[in-house]
Amino acid sequence: MLDTLFSHVKPMDTVFRGDGLRDFFLYRDLGISEATGGKVIAQLVVAHNAPEKGTGWHRHEAEFHIVIMLRGWARFMYEDQETLVSAGDCVHQRPGVRHFLFDYSPDMEYLEIVGPADFKTIDVEPVCPIPAPRGWAI
């Protein structure tokens, strides 16, 4: 017996919503959580508001987490390493890595795939100082 379902989600099947993890991003569910019975979530994430404070230092309780940048860029701190993630880049966030997304472009869009789907986000103590976001020029 299979414990996953076939899933085919078209762009018009789901909408970007503002009720995700961060209020300055919008999220579009791709139907994978339902199809896998909660084993994995896949979602598109887009910039909604200009960066002000960023995500804060945190880690995720997840077995698997990748980010594939589709458009634009984002600047992260992974532990004490500043990392520019640009369109076409793929980042595997190892379980428990402390990180902080602190800057991103107005056109930023990434695909996030995480297992399990109901992963937890835990705030952590700062690892190092964070550069200031550049903001969006008007």
Can you walk through the features of this model?
With 138 residues, the protein is mostly beta strands. It is 3% helix and 41% strand. The chain has 1 helix and 10 strands; from the N terminus they run E-H-E-E-E-E-E-E-E-E-E. It has one helix at 32-35; strands spanning 25-29, 41-47, 58-61, 64-71, 73-78, 81-86, 90-92, 99-104, 109-115, 120-123. Strand 5 and strand 6 form a beta hairpin.
The named CATH superfamily: Jelly Rolls
What structural class do you assign from the helix and strand content? Answer: mainly beta
Q: What is the ordering of alpha helices and beta strands?
A: EHEEEEEEEEE
Main beta sheet, described? Answer: 5 strands, antiparallel
- CATH architecture level-2 label: Sandwich
Radius of gyration: 15 Å
The 3D shape can be described as globular
Using DSSP, what is the number of strands?
10
Tell me, rounded to a whole number, the average pLDDT.
94
